[in-house]
Amino acid sequence: MKKIVITLIPLALFFGLVTLLFLNMGYHNEHVPSPLIGKSVPSFELPLLYEDKTMTEQDFIGEPWLLNVWGSWCPNCLYEHPVVTDLAQSGKLKVVGLNWKDEFSDADNWLKRLGNPYDVILVDYVGNTAIDFGVYGAPESFLIDANGIIVHKIVGELTPENVANEILPKLAQLQ
Amino acid sequence: MNTRYLALILLLLSSSSLWAIEVYDFKNQQQRELYQELTQELRCLVCQNQNLADSDADLAKDLKNQVADFVMNNQDKDTILAYMVQRYGDFVTYNPPLNAGTFFLWFSPFIVLLIGAVILIFNIRKKKQ
User: Fold this and answer.
1) ipTM of this predicted structure
2) Residue A35 and residue B86: Cβ atoms within 8 Å?
3) B121 CB burial (10 A radius; 0-12, 13-18, 19+)
4) Rounded to two decimals, what is the model's pTM?
């Protein structure tokens, strides 16, 4: 009896490992947790897409805002565009675009075709500001409070679900 | 026919990262080595099972440029790693620091070793009897 139990141990361990790996398979995603949550927005000075001036992070102090990183080259930005538009039109918070590594004419055409949901659009042609924000793909969105602290980050497209379950509750907590 | 095979082999070989040409104008060999070391150790965030040196993703190129800039401006290794970790978290380095979150990662091999040792001792004792 004892011998049977001992010989079964490796088998049990094996199945335990299989179960563990199997469970982790569903859990695995490519989301890198941001170390910037709870910290101040990195400082930047960026030109605007449609105005001949630059803005810094200080210009956004005073009300909560959402920074949405996008590019006309990014397929999922197309996918999330209606959601960004709905959120911006709801008037619940200011939605700011960060046009990342994009050509002006491409970005302009994209917005003309689909509509421009943004309050203002910052341009990061080189990509340095995106690196400061820890961006590693588009789209990404940052919820920032009135004092310039990053409250939440969504990696990947905004959906009606993550707006309703993450962005809006976090925003409500701020007010 | 033979030349075709040769061409194919050369083509395959040339895709190896060993043949990658770095375009940066480093001042000396130390800088070149530090750059190599850092890009080996930093993870490409887009293609997560590659390091920066091996990756050709746009973001990886930007990050490599950033690393090269720092190296050419005589920043040391710790400063550059800290810069990356502040933005992308511990995940960005293939050599994660020891802290509460990574404790299991670092010590699980020793736990397995311990289990093995216990089994071994148990078996030896049994044989002696």
Assistant:
1) 0.72
2) yes
3) exposed
4) 0.76
